[in-house]
Amino acid sequence: MAFPVTRLRRLRRTEGLRRLVRETRLELSDLVYPLFVMHGQGVRREIPSMPGQRQYSVDTLVEEAREASALGIGAVLLFGLPARKDALGSEAYDDDGIVQRAVRALKSALPGLVVITDICLCEYTDHGHCGVLRDGEVDNDASLELLARAAVSHARAGADVMAPSDMMDGRVAAIRRALDENGLSHVPSMSYAAKYASAFYGPFREAAESAPQFGDRRGYQMDPANWREALREIEEDLREGADIVMVKPALAYLDVIARARARVDAPLAAYNVSGEYALVKAAAERGWVDGKRITLETLTAIKRAGADIIITYHAKEAAQWLREGE
Q: How far apart, in whole angstroms, are the C-alpha atoms of residue 290 and residue 16?
């Protein structure tokens, strides 16, 4: 029926009414907190391009994870900064590597925390690319064995979920096969299935010290202009055994998240990446936007687009705000 019988504003009049009919609900259980871990003791090194984010040593990482867990955050995603880098990224699959140490410490201190580990070589290689180089090019097939070794090493250390982010063809199958062959068939994978070659990653590369020493990653990460290819990547990773699939970045790719949600029933993650975080922080620090409102609006938009899981550097502050709203 038409106005004046139909008045959609009636259900917007008070916060209680708005909450009652709210279609999309951002919840603590949606959030995953990314963390950067490095060698040393007592380290809490600020990341200039990501205000509020730090590089942690294992001991301070446990303290930070404990704080996040107390706020209701149930999962973290680990990125490691090695003691040294080499052409093959060997600390990625060293059983005494920095991520493996961090996993053991976290699972000892917080056994109920879901610990997800990034599986890639870029943080560990001296050239900064995500796989093995052959004649100046990333060799897809030669990289698969090393990625699989890293996944097995992380899982043996106690990691709950493997998250391959390298964008090599066939890496989900290689990791699944290696886990299964090593008695780790219970360990799931969360594939960075549609990972775009994005300019929004800049601050992360400072945080993880993983910028490529030459060229870029457009030869293996996705062209930002493509969405049909993203669905092919997602479907292929699911066929190869991925348990969760991810779209990265999130905000500039909400359409891809929505299309993926319409196509697949598997759990869908979205990564609210470092550049997206830094833009909000920079504007909020200058008073140009309300930091709290724009953060919660952003995360709600990602959820509304169809994401089940949101990986975000805003996790701790968002958790605090969500708890305050209860």
A: 22
What DSSP line would sit under 177-238, residue for residue? HHHHHTT-TT--BEEEEEEB--GGGHHHHHHTT---SSS-STTTSBPTT-SHHHHHHHHHHH
Task: State the pLDDT at residue 208.
Answer: 67
The per-residue pLDDT for 325 is: 77
- Domain membership flag for residue 111: yes
Q: Across residues 205-214, what is the average pLDDT?
A: 74
Domain range for residue 121? 27-216+225-324
195 labelled catalytic: yes
- The answer to whether 224 and 196 are in contact (CB under 8 A) is yes
pLDDT given for residue 204 in this prediction:
83
Is 107 one of the catalytic residues? no
pLDDT band at 217 (very low <50, low <70, confident <90, very high): confident
Please report, rounded to a whole number, the percentage of residues in the chain having pLDDT higher than 90: 87
Q: Any idea what DSSP says for residue 273?
A: -
Residue 11 is assigned to a structural domain of this protein: no
- The torsion defined by the Cα of 174, 180, 182 and 185, in degrees rounded to 10, comes to 130
Domain count, the chain: 1
pLDDT at residue 220, as a whole number: 85
Residue 69 located in a structural domain: yes
Cis preceding-peptide flag for 249 (omega within 30 of 0)? yes
We report the CATH number of the domain holding residue 35 as 3.20.20.70
Beta strands at 54-56 and 44-46: parallel, antiparallel or unpaired? antiparallel
The active-site residue, picked from 248, 281, 303, 316, is: 248
- Cα 130 to Cα 37: distance, rounded to the nearest angstrom: 18
The 8-class DSSP code of residue 321 comes to H
Residue 135 has pLDDT above 60, yes or no: yes
- Residue 219 banded pLDDT, cuts 50, 70, 90: confident
pTM here is 0.95
Whether residue 12 lies inside any domain: the answer is: no
255, 176 Cβ separation under 8 angstroms: no
Written as six digits, the tokens of 135 are 């004649």
Active-site position among 85, 195, 281, 316: 195
